[in-house]
Amino acid sequence: MRLKDQFRFVRQNMKKNKTRVFMTILATAMGCAFLIVLASVGFGLQKSVVDEVTSRRVVTQIDVHGKETGNNGGFRQLKIKDVQGFEKIKNVKAVTRRQMLSQESTFSIGNYQEGTETYVTHFPSEVKAGFELSKGRLPKSKDEIIVGYDFPLNLVSKDAGDDIYDKHGQIKKGFRYNGNLIGKNLKLPVKQFFDGKEQTKIISLTVVGISKKPTKEWNQDRSVFISEDMLKEIEVFAKTPKGIVLEPDSKVNQKDLEQQRDTFDEVKIYAKNMEAVQGIVDTLKKQNYATYSVVNELKEVNMMFTIVKAGLIFIGTIAILIASIGIYNTMTMAVTERAPDIGIMKAIGANPKVIKRIFLLESSYIGLIGAVIGTAVSYLISYTVNFAIPLIIKQAFGQKTPENLIFSDIPLILPIICVIICYVVTIISGYRPALRATKVDVLKAMRREI
């Protein structure tokens, strides 16, 4: 019997018992849909977490925290020689370095003021790494500065009381500075104690640029970026590295103090592409540098979710195994009902392998049709879940779900895994009835009761 005839024979037999076959296909489809939807939760949450991690951090960024010294596990801060060495590593795009001004940085303009962090940075390397402005230009002289995007929104009146925030956590318009900061002068008081007396120097700085808006609303940028030359001027006045304030009663080891001179508080390496990150990290580790990259975090996240997804797929497979009982029952009844047909096929010389193949084809038909229907239903359920659950949470609990949170995601590999599992299970379920069909006695099968 040709393969084409075998397929036609299978379809004809399935049509004879439409209701039973339909219910078996339905059970298989429900099992496949359960597997895919259940596992899609793991895929969806993984995608949400990975997107969140990569949105907070540049995937090509490597943080270098220091270099290990000796065998005692201690680390020293990085200096310009370290930075120059990083720049020579293969596939390094840029190396940014920042120093934090060790002063209580309170900037003021007229009757408005704001306390924030002040960074000393190398602007050429920042631009090379992707630093962008929303307004203005980069500094050209030592008294020119750049402020963070949210800095102007937090300049508050000195006369403001405690009730200055609205329901969204923003400073009310009546209390904050509303003018254009570009070209305006900010006053920065720098202080130091000499012979037990506090002395203050007022430094005038001109705002020439405002940084680009952060990608996340909660990630406010209120920093102020000053030049390396301005830091030197502050250090000349304070007579300490980074303008460290020495209180009258403080006991500071001068040697420890000088070790902080010309050191960087933040050093970030930017690779040319994501594929190059691991190679750079490995190179740095060989040189005893302490590093961190989002790629390492993603590896841990992906490993955790791989375990979760494997567990969910295993649980979903149980549903298909339950459906396989129906397939086994359907095929067993089919063998019993078609005993006369099997007897005729054997009488005219049909090979037992052909008979077995016919019944395996029928069980495969049932399994694959069920898998296809289950996959289509699972995509519909996944879309409905992603649309409906945020609305339900908002209505039931009065809370808004995080932006771009994905509850269910069905990548192509998931339906493929489901179809493979379903096909294997249906073949196993149909194998014993198919084997039984090859052992049907010809005379008994062809006997007719009168």
TrEMBL record:
Keywords: Cell membrane, Membrane, Transmembrane, Transmembrane helix. PANTHER family: ABC TRANSPORTER PERMEASE YTRF (PTHR30572:SF4), MEMBRANE COMPONENT OF TRANSPORTER-RELATED (PTHR30572). InterPro entries: ABC3_permease_C, MacB_PCD, Macrolide_Exporter_MacB. It holds the Pfam family MacB_PCD. The chain crosses the membrane at residues 21-45, 303-328, 365-392, 412-431. This is ABC transporter permease. Its main location: membrane. It is a multi-pass membrane protein. It comes from Bacillus xiapuensis. Belongs to the ABC-4 integral membrane protein family. Residues 22-259 form the MacB-like periplasmic core domain. It comes from the Bacteria. It is found in: Cell membrane. The keyword Nucleus does not apply. Residues 313-439 form the ABC3 transporter permease C-terminal domain. The keyword Iron-sulfur does not apply.
